[in-house]
Every structure is written in structure tokens, then in C-alpha cells.
What we know:
Elements: E1 8-13, H1 18-29, E2 33-40, E3 51-55, H2 61-64, E4 72-75, H3 81-84, H4 87-107, E5 112-115, H5 128-141
Parallel strand pairs: 1-2, 1-4, 2-3, 4-5
Helix pairs in contact: 4-5
Amino acid sequence: MEIHKFDKTALVFGATGLVGRHLLQFLLLHPAYREVIVFSRRSLKIDHPKLTVHLIDFDQPASWRPLVKGDDLFCCLGTTMAKAGSKEAFYKVDFTYPHTAAQAALANGTNQILLVSSVGAEANSVFYYSQVKGQIEDAIKKMKFWSI
């Protein structure tokens, strides 16, 4: 990844998952980012001078929306149907939470969003997982970020 602007703030949702953990390490080491702000429901087992962690309740966005201020939003939120336990719970984690985070970031002046999705994401897919991934991609594309 080549980044040209420096002194940036990264916002990360999903830093405790497989992709998010690796992303977090990358961002903390990258010289373009002076601050990395993580929004998580559980604490991280990492300490770094560039790192700020906000422990949040994703179901209470009014309490964390004002904190979503930075240059780049990295969204790695996601689960599996097995972990979620129901279609409704899966939708909440894979659509509602990323969409709410993106809305908050955009409202607070964030320039771009980097969204982890899935191969085969398609809103009209016969597979529910792919449908939801396609729906979040389509919703994000309609937002006015300068880069997605």
C-alpha cells in the first residue's frame, strides 16, 4: 500500500478480527499515520504510543458517533452465520454496524473508507452472506467519500 499524505489519523472498526489485527499492526508501523483510533467492544492486548482505543457498544451509536473523526476509515467488521446465530444478528454485524460507522465518519469529515468485504459479494446473490456483503458495498458506494 502506497500512501502519499502524512500526519493522518486512521479509524479502525474490527481491529480484533483476523484481518483487523494485521491491519492494526500495519497502521501502527506506517509513518503516514500519527494516530490510529480503534473502536471495539472489547479491549486490545496491545499498547502503542500512536494507539487510542474506544470501547463502545455498537448498539448505542449516539455515544460514539462524535468520536469517529479522522482521515481514513478502515472497516473490517464481520462475522460468520455460525458465530452470529441468526440472519438478523449477522445482518447487524455485517451491514448495520459498518453502515453506521461510515455515516458517522462521513458526517465528521473523513475522506475515504477502506472496506473489507468478500469475494462474490452481490446484493442479488442467492447466498445470504454474499447478499449482505453486496448490500453494504452498494450502500457505501452511494456515500460521498472521495475514495472508496
